Amino acid sequence: MPLLARIPVATIKIGDLEDMENIGKANNVQLVIGNSHAVDTAERLGTPILRAGFPLYDIIGGYQKTWIGYRGTRQTLFDLANLVINYSHEEIPVYRSIYAQKPAGELTELNSSKTLSCH
Q1: Dihedral of CA 31/36/17/8: which sign?
Q2: Which pTM value belongs to this model?
Q3: b vs e for 66-100, b when ≥16 Cβ sit within 10 Å of the residue's Cβ?
Q4: Which helix (H) or strand (E) holds 33?
Q5: Of 8, 44, 48, 69, which residue has the fewest beta carbons closer than 10 angstroms?
Q6: d(CA 3, CA 80)
Q7: Could you give the domains of the chain?
Q8: For the segment 68-98, what is each residue's pLDDT rounded down to a tens digit?
Q9: How far apart, in whole angstroms, are the C-alpha atoms of residue 35 and residue 20?
């Protein structure tokens, strides 16, 4: 049995970056994992990119990144989480405690605000 036939996925597409971009557009891709050549593709798709593989000519020391073992897995998870956080365009409203000691003018403004937290 060929090696690719043993991979437990619905489909496997062998292609180049153009094929990846077309599939990404069709499937609303959320993340690109690739080398420095995939940066333009990720930008056109509007998604973050986790740089991996070779060449990594746009990151200094990228070739020395550890990917295997506990340390590599942990760092990769941190990198993925940071990509999601940094790429998210949702803003978190400023928390203002209802118990904060504010001048009278700010209290009126605070009471009329609709973004109060219940925590």
Answers
A1: negative
A2: 0.67
A3: eeeeeeeeeebeeeeeebeeeeeeeeeeeeeeeee
A4: strand 32-34
A5: 8
A6: 28
A7: 3-63 (3.40.50.1980)
A8: 999 999 999 999 999 988 887 677 788 888 8
A9: 13
